[in-house]
Amino acid sequence: MEIERKWLTNGWPDVEPIRTLYMQQGYVTTAPAVRIRSHQEQGKQTKYILCFKGDGGLSRKEIETEISEGLFEQLKDFIGKPMIAKQQRRYALAGGLVLEANLVDEGLDSEFYYAEVEFESEQQAMQWQPDEWLKEYLVHEVTAEKGQSMAEYWNSTR
Fold it and tell me: What are the DSSP calls for 95-130, one per residue?
């Protein structure tokens, strides 16, 4: 189960990230979402993930499994559309939580930033308040808004 809140943002937070990842992702189908993703962290081996996601909102079923580079490339070819490019910077939050800030499709007309925080429970998600340094960054929450998923972005841009 994935439990997360999401915000549209303007740029990166003004603190140093703990990790930076570079990703490519594409969708075999968007309803339900069947996604492939590669992610590369500097100095580490690229990982390839196949993911199945239920309908959006605060909570949704999610199944992820690592796949080979060969299968990733076959699925990428099967999709036959340009992959979404993402840079993700991760920031440590109080209570062991992590803010994932993302720049999507840098340099394209559709470029945008968003951020997410994942939680252990819906109760934790609903009660969570941003750390002081994040209050001005996380102002436009879109967790419950239709059309704010990456699958919807894929449908509108690919």
Answer: GG-EEEEEEESTTSTT-EEEEEEE-SSHHHHHH---
